[in-house]
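Researcher: Quick one. three chains, 792 residues in total.
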Amino acid sequence: MGCAGILSVRFSAFSGGVFGEMGGDFYNPVMHTSPFDPSAFPTATEGGEHQSNLSDSPLLANLNVEQLAAVTLPAEHALVLAGAGSGKTRVLTTRIAWLLQTGQISSSGVLAVTFTNKAAREMVARLSAMLSLRVQGMWIGTFHGLCNRFLRAHHTLAHLPAGFQVLDVQDQLSAIKRLCKQFGVDTERYAPKVLQGFISANKEDGLRPEAVPAKDLDTRKKLEVYRLYEEQCQREGVVDFGELILRSYELLRDHASVREHYRRRFAHVLIDEFQDTNRLQYEWIKMLVGAPGGESSGGCILAVGDDDQSIYAFRGARVGNMFDFVREFGVQHHIKLEENYRSGSHILDCANALIGHNRERLGKNLRTSQGTGEMVRVFEATPNGQHSGDFIEAAWIVEEIRHLADGGWPLREIAVLYRSNAQSRVIESALVQVGISYRVYGGLRFFDRAEIKNALAYLRLIENPHDDTSFLRVVNFPPRGIGLRTLEQLQDVAQSRGCALSDAASALDGRPGRIVQTFVDSLHEMRSTVQGLRLGQVVERVLDRSGVLEHYRNDREGADRVANLEELVHAAEGFAAAEGLDPIVHTDLSSEEPSVLALFLTQAALEAGDNTAQSAQEGVQLMTVHSSKGLEFDAVFLTGLEEGLFPHDNALSDRAGLEEERRLMYVAITRARSRLVLSHAQTRMLHGQTRYNLRSRFLDELPEHAVRWITARKAASPSAPMASSRQPVAPTAQRPAQDEAGLRVGQKVFHNHFGEGEVLRLDPQAGHAQVSFTRHGVKWLALAIAKLTPVD
DNA sequence: AGCTTCAGACTGAAA
DNA sequence: GTCTGAAGCT
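Model:
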C-alpha cells in the first residue's frame, strides 16, 4: 500500500515531540544549557522597525515590517491577525527562535500549540533548521498531544493509570453503544451518535454532567448516559479526545502547586490557528497562563489566527475566543500580516472583495507586490442531451489540466477543490478517462482501517485486560463462534460482579463459555510470551498468535490488509528509536511507567495518519475546500459554485452560516498561486437525482476587473459533444423573483422535458422548487432555469 | 451463527 | 448513486 514512507516520516519527524524525556522534563525547572548559537546571535534590535538595522541577523533577515514587529514583540500578550499566505508559520517559528537566541528564555520555557500534527511537525522542522539546540524536548505539539504528555506526567494526580489509553471517535462510539445496551437505553430515541455528540460537545464546553443544565427530560436522559459513560471510561482506564483536555484543565485548576509550576515555567505560550480553538481549549490556555489580575500570572500569549479563515464553527470552534482574548487579557499588541506572498493581485482582489461582504470581521485586506497575475476565470457548464452539467464541468476541467500538464505544470501543483466529498466522483472518472493520475484526500486514515484497529485491539488487551471496548471488538475476530447471546451473558456477569469482561469469562459454562475462556487464556499467553521482546516483534507475534494475519491471508481480497499489517509491524519497529525509547516491552500491569507498547498505542490514536486514499504518488490533488486549508497550489480549480452546494443549503438558515460559507470560499480562493478557475454547472446529479442549480451568489461578489467569464468553446472530450456556446454570462445577471410563476406547494406544474408534476416543497430563498414528476420522479429545480408552467 | 438483502442517509472533520 | 447499518434468510 505504500504506506511505508508516510509512516516512517510520521514516526521519525515528530520524534520526542510527545514523549521525549518524559518525567525528567517536568518538575525540573532547571534550564537547558545555553541555547545560543553564537554565529546566529542578533544585534540589538532597537524596537526592530527596520530590517536594514538587522541585516547581520540571519534570523530576522527578509522579514517584512509587520513580520519583524511580530517576531520581536515585547514579552506581553499579543494577537497577530495573519492573512492567508502572509508567512504565519514563519513568524511563529522565528519568534521562538528569536526568544531563544536573545536569551530571553530557555527552550523549556516555550509552549507552542497547534491543531494538527502536521502543523506541529512543520514547526519543529523549521525550528530545528534555525537553531542548533535540541528542539526535540520542547513543548511543541497539538492540544491533545500536549495534554496527553501532561496527563502522563501527572497521571496519579489525574486519577489515571500510567498506561491509560486514548479512545478515538470510533472507539468512543462503540463504548457508548455498549453502554446503551447494558443499561437498556432506548437507542431509537437516543441514537448513540447523538449521545456521542452530546457528550463531546459538553466536554468541549468544559462541562461535566453535573454542570450541564438538565432543562428537560431528554437532556436528563442524555446526562445519565454521560455520567455512566464517564464511569465506564474511568473503570477501564481510557480517555477520549475531549477528556484529554478537560482533565488537564481540571488538574491545573485543582492543584495550585502544579499550576504555579507551569505558569512559572512557560514564559511564552504561542497558539497557532487561534480562530479554530473551542471554548475548552481557550479555558485550558487561560488556566495555564493565568488571566491578568489572578493570583499568579504566568507567561505571555502570542495568539496567531485569521478570523476570515474560521471554517470550523460546526465542530465547536469559537472565533469569539479572539475577541475574548483581547478583552480578558487587555491585549495591547495587535499586528496584522496583510502582505501576501502567494498570489497575484487579481486573485487577492477577488478574495478581498468577497470577504468584504461579511459583516462580522476584525478587518484585514490582503495585498501583494507581485503584480496582477492572471485573471480569475469562471466557467459555466451547460448540460447537453447526454450529459449533466457536472459531467461537462469535470470534462472541461480535466481538459484544462491536460493543457497545463502539457505545458509543464507539475500535476501535484494542480488542485481540484469541491465543497462536499460527493463531488469528487465525477471528477475522478473524468481523470481516469484521460489517464491523468490523481490523489484524493479524505479517505480512511492508516490507523482507522479495520485490520489495523483489530490488531491494535489485541495489543491494547495485552496492555490492559480491562479494555472492554477492545475485548468486544476482537472476542469474535477472527470468527470463533461467539455470538451475541454469549456476549450478553458475559456482559451481565461482568456488570453484576463489577469486573471486566475478560474476568467474567470463567463464570460462563457450556461450549460458548469454553470458547471465551480459551480466548481469554490466549490473551494471557500472548501477554507473557511477549515480555522482553522488541516492540516490533511484539506486534508481529500478536498478529500471528491472534490469527488476525492468517485470517486476512485466507481472504482473497485481503492482500491490501496484509500489506497494511506488515506496515504496522514496520511502524512499531521504528517507533522506539524515533521516540528515543527503550524498544523492549514489559507490560507490568501495576507499573508506574507506561510501557513502550502503551505509548505506541497512544501515538496511534493521537496521530492516525494522513487521510489520503492513495499512496503518495505524483498526481492532481482532489480535496474538499476544508481540507485544502493551509495548502497552496500553482493552479486551483474550484468546482460546483452553485446555490445549494456552495453556499450549501444546510448553511443558509442564518447569517452566521452564510458568512462561514463565504469564509470557506475565501479559503479556497487564497489557495491559488498563479491560476484560479471557478466553475459551476447548470445541472448536477446529486443523491441520484438531477438538480438544477443557480450559480453561486459568491460569484457575483467578485470584482469585475479581475474576472473573466468564459464558456466552453470546444468539445470537452471526444465523447462529450459541444457544450452549447452561450454568451458569456453577465456577472450581474438578475436573480429570479422569489415568488416567480406564483408557485405554491401542491401546485400542479408542467415542464418541457419532464412533463407533468406536482410541487412538493419550495425554497424561496434559493429560488428552488422540489417537484415530483409523474414520469421522471422527484427533482429539485432552479426556478430561474427550469421553465415551470402552472397547470390547473 | 453468519451471510445477504434491503432501507435510509447524504456538508464539512483534527485529535 | 453509493455507502452504512439493521432485519431477514439459510
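The domain at 165-236 of chain A is CATH 1.10.10.160 (Arc Repressor Mutant, subunit A).
Researcher: Thanks, that's what I needed.
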